[in-house]
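A common beginner's mistake is to predict each chain separately and then try to dock the pieces by hand. The better habit, illustrated here, is to supply every component at once so that their relative placement is modeled jointly.
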Amino acid sequence: ETGVTQTPRHLVMGMTNKKSLKCEQHLGHNAMYWYKQSAKKPLELMFVYNFKEQTENNSVPSRFSPECPNSSHLFLHLHTLQPEDSALYLCASSQEVFNYGYTFGSGTRLTVV
Amino acid sequence: QKEVEQNSGPLSVPEGAIASLNCTYSDRGSQSFFWYRQYSGKSPELIMSIYSNGDKEDGRFTAQLNKASQYVSLLIRDSQPSDSATYLCAVNMFNQAGTALIFGKGTTLSVSS
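With all components supplied together, the output reads:
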């Protein structure tokens, strides 16, 4: 496996469900990110992990909970989501948080019903 | 609020023409700038990075940066139908989620044969 791998590719969940999105990078990068992409809106940065340390982001609802157990893996835990949370969730990684481009995974298309 | 602005388009050019894509950003302290291409249903793909004022060329692509005007552009020479995609401008900024790339909404380019 090379690059950034996200699973699952598609996810349909009810508003009372709990699910997790997984991201794995095989690039030896030190920083990982979660972005949300909705129609007609720019990519929204949700969480940043630099050397496994997260920068708090109080603008993201608590129903989204990130986890970074090591520098290669990143999770996004989901619970009690709303229909407006339906979107493409993209994971990315980079060598460092400064001055490096990101490599994106293929994304998880999430539908909340 | 840290922002990256792009005209959403669509920008339509005939095959073989030069496509010009523009981007402005709000954070005067930003030091690294990127252009991504995103095909419909796919994740963003890095095509250019630029860090210093002036031009940077890579094949048919030229990125231009003017930090005093807080302006970045991408020129695509000899445009091909396969260049039809959404082009995202991204700027490295410090924001409430940490230091990361902030993206514009993207400009949709259509190249007609």
